From TrEMBL:
It comes from the Bacteria. One of its GO terms (biological process) is cobalamin biosynthetic process. InterPro entries: Precorrin-6x_reduct. Transmembrane segments: none annotated. Keywords: Cobalamin biosynthesis, Oxidoreductase. Pathway: Cofactor biosynthesis; adenosylcobalamin biosynthesis. Signal peptide: none annotated. One of its GO terms (molecular function) is precorrin-6A reductase activity. This is Precorrin-6A/cobalt-precorrin-6A reductase.
Length: 257
């Protein structure tokens, strides 16, 4: 069964490993290309956009794709919108790995906002030491609040993204642990964190560290992301694919194909 995985997450990498070891499936993973040196995958890999829903429809036809698994980041709403439309047009089954969001716990102080721009406004008029744990493309939103001192952790350098004048960058890729995150926040005398509610375990340590130190966190809400059949893990996606394959095989047998 030919499967397209829309990737870029830990769950997507887990799914490629499972499918690469299963001869029933012939998988391709598609990465957006926002990371300069993505991790190598054990299945065919394509990098870059499709050109909207129309481009994705054309690619799915050319590849003779039989099922799609959307394992993109919770904030990658545009590709998910395109996937829902393209799969509906071609009657291709679509599953979406839905990573549960982080939830507020006792000791957390979250300031919920709708966007990176709103997060910059929420930092307030008094200068603060701010730890930005966002994608590099969102850093430009904080140029409108230049009176703060920023420390930003990204996988890749922001390159041509306009930055606030007082910012220090360093690279890092999860998973992180609570002890090192606590040490980082304390050493840098951080007053407030800014984060997306990405969910998962890889970067949750910063939430634990902020709770431990009593540091507030400006939390950017998730977008309203379209999806197909919801599953919560790579393993659940494989079970769904097995069902689709069985259903397809049964249907073909009934038609005498």
């Amino acid at each position: 069964m030919r499967v397209l995985i829309l990737g870029g997450t830990t769950e997507a990498s887990d799914l490629t490993r499972l499918l690469a070891a299963d001869s029933r499936f012939d998988a391709t993973i598609s990465l957006a290309g926002r990371t300069a040196n993505p991790k190598a995958q054990p299945v065919r890999t394509r990098i870059g956009g499709f050109g909207g829903a129309d481009g994705l429809v054309a690619w799915l036809k050319q590849d003779a794709t039989q099922a799609v698994v959307d394992a993109t980041h919770p904030y990658a709403d545009q590709i998910s919108t395109n996937a829902v439309e393209a799969c509906a047009r071609l009657a291709i089954p679509l599953a979406s790995i839905v990573r549960p969001a982080w939830e507020l716990r006792p000791g957390d102080t979250w300031i919920p906002v709708a966007s990176a721009e709103a997060a910059a406004d929420a930092l307030g008029p008094e200068p603060r030491r701010v730890f930005l744990t966002l994608g590099r493309l969102e850093l430009g939103a904080f140029a409108t609040a230049p009176h703060h001192h920023y420390i930003a952790r990204t996988i890749d350098p922001p390159n041509d993204v306009p930055l606030p004048p007082d910012i220090r960058l360093f690279s890092g890729r999860g998973p992180f642990d609570c002890e090192s995150e606590t040490t980082l926040l304390a050493r840098e005398k951080i007053d407030v964190l800014v984060s997306k509610n990405s969910g998962g375990a890889a970067t949750y340590a910063k939430i634990e560290a902020a709770r431990r130190l009593g540091i507030p966190l400006v939390m950017i809400a998730r977008p309203n992301k379209p999806r197909g059949h919801g599953v919560e893990s790579a393993e659940a996606a494989v079970i769904w694919l097995e069902h689709q394959r069985t259903h397809r095989t049964t249907s073909c047998s009934a038609r005498g194909v």
